[in-house]
Amino acid sequence: MDINLEIFSPVHQIKNKLFNELDLKVSIKRDDLIHPIISGNKWRKLKYILLKAQAENKTHLVTFGGAYSNHLLATAAAAAKFGFKATGIVRGEAVNNDTLFLCKLHGMELIFTDRDSYRDKTALFEKHFGNNADAFFIDEGGASANGAQGCSELITELGETYDHIFCACGTGTTAAGIINGINEHQLSAQFNAVPVFKNGEFMKDEIDRFLTAPTDYHLHTGYHFGGYGKTTPELISFIKQFVADTGILIEPVYTGKMLYALFDLAQKNHFKPGDKILAIHSGGIWGLLGMKDKF
Q: 4 lies in a domain?
């Protein structure tokens, strides 16, 4: 099987009155356009994981996620595309929803497990697949050095340099990869991570464990809107306005929070006139399926 997917991820400028007034050039890298389902950082994180599975002659991908996990869906679609079997171990009681429907449509088998057992993913893998020589363990969200390696390649695609690069943060893998790419190309861009969890200071340790060299970066922890998967009317209002103004679809779990942070920091004069800023659209728009009631 040929694990090769052409990357199409253009950079579009975001036109906005606020940015014009502050003399800021803000652009967004459209990783959401890489693939309709295996989009954004999901494809980037899976790329070298799948190549490793192939090199080890593994044919069965086993991974983990919640009931609305973009990672589960992306893995299911990637498995179907590249000829793997796939199993998703899902946190919580057995449910049916749009995301899991799409996982099953792509051939993924689902195993539901209680939240206590879910905490030890290695033990779960051993319990269900310890005797299966074909099975390949993929951590939740694709968190791994291989995942970071794939994300680092984003930097090689940039046609110009930036003063600031912004990205939402879930496992820290994407952030670490982008920082590694910045360092590898010796760029002066300041990286800005926006954790989507409450008390997101812990994200520094998650990012640092995949860095190839110690690096300073900004961690903006005040934009979680109550925690992972949580929203407020203010965030939803921002997302609706942004989508209506730009035609770029975003969601409340990741990219919506990151872009809100960027706009808010601009309003608070965090940037210098003339700064060039790049926001990373990390895909994940299928997460909207689990949050329709918020709109």
A: no
182, 189 Cβ separation under 8 angstroms? yes
Element (H, E) at 177: helix 173-184
Q: For 200, which DSSP code?
A: G
188: Cβ contacts below 8 Å, ≥ 6 apart: 161, 163
The rounded distance, in Å, linking the Cα atoms of 238 and 263 is 10
Q: What is the dihedral of CA 285, 8, 159, 29, to 10 degrees?
A: 0
pTM over 0.90: yes
DSSP letter for 167, please.
E
Domain assignment present for residue 240? The answer is yes
Any domain includes 5: no
Q: Domains in the chain: how many in total? A: 2
**Among 93, 110, 142, residue at a domain's last position:** 142
Amino acid identity at 222: G
- CATH number of the domain bearing residue 137: 3.40.50.1100
Tens-digit pLDDT profile for residues 184-236: 999 999 999 999 999 999 999 999 999 999 999 999 999 999 999 999 999 99
